[in-house]
Amino acid sequence: MQNFDLKGKNAFVIGGTGGIGLEVARMLRESGAEVTVAGRHQLKNAQGIDWVHVDFDLGASELARDDVKCLLEKCDILIFTYGPFIQKSLHETTPDDWLKMAVDDYALPGIAVSSVLPGMMERKFGRIILFGGTRTFQINPYRTNAAYAGAKTGISVIIKSISAEYRKHGVTCNGIFPGFTRNPPDDSVSVDEKSIALQVMNLVCSSDLNGVLMNVDCGWNPVS
């Protein structure tokens, strides 16, 4: 971690109160960044990391709160790990399911990105990491999670658009597409949450990596 120097940078991890998000928040803090995480669950034993409660079920209104808007406006590093999963066949997917996936897994990351970009442009520095789903870096068929995977596939459009348009302002945007996570891994295709967090840090700390869609899935393939 001594190679990662983020002193003086403000990091905001949305969905950072557990799992991969919390591992990323810890590494950011160890690298010197001022870190705030947003999530439903109160932080425990996360020394030096601030916490703001966000009820994601309320949708976009939560990101429009004054305290959250302030965090987004001063954000130098945005990590958006929140992304609920629904596993249903298409004929079982309800209108509410479709709306939830569209809002939570595509619109909310987009709203957060639109909120942080003006400040990053002004400061001539920004790092944005968005999370896709397993193998959603390209169009694939999905038997039981098409609503989720479709929204997550759209994340790649946001990533590529930011990397193309805002690089001239010192802003990079990259994507992580994790596989099945276990901590620690318990089979050949599960990934350690800390390993995923380390790849996030590599992307955050490099100005050369921009528009990367990184699979961290041990080479998992649905047909293997």
The overall pLDDT average reads: 92
State the order of secondary-structure elements, H for helix, E for strand.
EHEEHHEHEHEEEHE
Count of helical segments? 6
Number of strands: 9
Radius of gyration: 17 Å
Q: What gap, in angstroms, lies between the N and C termini? A: 35 Å
Supply the helix-strand structural class.
alpha/beta
Q: Uncertain segments of ≥5 residues (pLDDT<50)? A: none
Report the sheet with the most strands, covering strand number, pairing sense and barrel closure.
7 strands, parallel
| Form type | globular
Approximate strand percentage: 15-25%
The helicity comes to 25-40%
Order of strands in the sheet with the most strands? 3-2-1-4-5-6-9
Salient structural properties:
single chain, 224 residues, alpha/beta, two-stranded parallel sheet, 6 helices, 9 strands, globular
Would you write up a description of this structure?
The chain has 224 residues and is of the alpha/beta class. The chain contains 6 helices and 9 strands. Strands 3-2-1-4-5-6-9 form a 7-stranded parallel sheet, sandwiched between helices. β4 (77-80), α4 (95-123) and β5 form a beta-alpha-beta unit.
